[in-house]
């Protein structure tokens, strides 16, 4: 538990009860939506599942790129559990929707991968920016994607990641619009949560990071940006999906962008300074 | 001393020796330049001197506006010392250049106010953004005003301060251009030094805070802003000079914008988190 945590044990119990209930709904196939704004202050995670033969290179890829790929946990090969992140997580069914990549191409989406499971699969969980959205809301900042009931906007950029053998590619970012003064506060607030990508990596002119049309996200939904607002860009855990397109493993499973694994880790326990 | 300070006692001695030597040069009239980039990591201060009758209102003005007017010290009435900020400071001669306001109008500038000194004068010292410039440089950020050997650019804005009786007016800001990623780092770094205005209050479009021509600062010099840079705006301790124009005390003395009082306080001792 972080020395910065101010959660009471009742708050803690309530948050865990809520996330476990929601995860059971997801497991039962009763929730297939994006998870922005849900889960009462828990860390949400991006997920990448790869055959063992590909896992070591990918682990180094995460270590090379800690801002876009902040590693929370790695499973034992073949294990469908992620005990570190929650005692009862079953990685085969506890994500609202999965992307299935074959030879680097997205071939299908599904809400359960039990029938595909292989004994050599390794699961990686990476922190997600949805985790800090509640911190921003607590500070009075409005989140356009939540206000407009949309998935967050995500874009491919021209910012190269650091290659690890077969894994390489450009960084994907999530974008939230803010007025300048709110952007300045958002930077200070999100810097406290490095395991959820920390401070933004860009703000202002999207073209400077290779985004040519801000109204057409590559993943998720477009949201309104008002004239007095700046788009603020955080590194995103969808970055590995670009690296998988390039590495072309025979099979790879990820979450569908915006539809995350809800963990039992409370963000209040993970705050820096 | 801040628990965050990492200064060795040798560093500390060197910094104090350097600032005291520089202050003696200023006292002797041998230095009348802007003080950006000088003083080895010491807190620089804005200065306002007012007759006692006006001082209480101004003290509340500072308390009402702690971002633009972060109060470091207040003198006893009639005292030309500021012992809290440096044992040998003589406020009548230790600033490179003074502005003299009469009835709210700038009437003169001078390098020594000894001949004007009144027994009812109270001196206020407010933190200055020059104090965090060395922190930014240590982190590898370039400061255009120092690179171009110019005074920092300062602008009147449309951001109202909180009035205290006769003192009111809009906020003055200092501006430093940065790329977006450097601006994001500058926000995190300067947030650690609230006594030097802390994090910026605006970035990006100057018109949103009432600055219609960024190439024509109201105080200091214009600096180059490259196409991939954003102007980043910090609240500035010249704000009281606008409030003095409005309050119209019979006499008020300030520093000339950019020509600051160098104190014995080391910024490393004042860092938050």
From TrEMBL, chains A, B:
GO terms for MF: lyase activity
Keywords for the protein's UniProt record, in alphabetical order: Lyase
E.C. numbers: 4.2.1.-
InterPro entries to which the protein is assigned, alphabetical: D-Glu_cyclase, Putative_hydro-lyase, UPF0317
UniProt record similarity statement: Belongs to the D-glutamate cyclase family.
NCBIfam families: PRK05463.1
Family annotation (PANTHER family): D-GLUTAMATE CYCLASE, MITOCHONDRIAL (PTHR32022)
Protein name: Putative hydro-lyase VIBC2010_00120
Organism per entry: Vibrio caribbeanicus ATCC BAA-2122
Native organism taxonomy: Bacteria, Pseudomonadati, Pseudomonadota, Gammaproteobacteria, Vibrionales
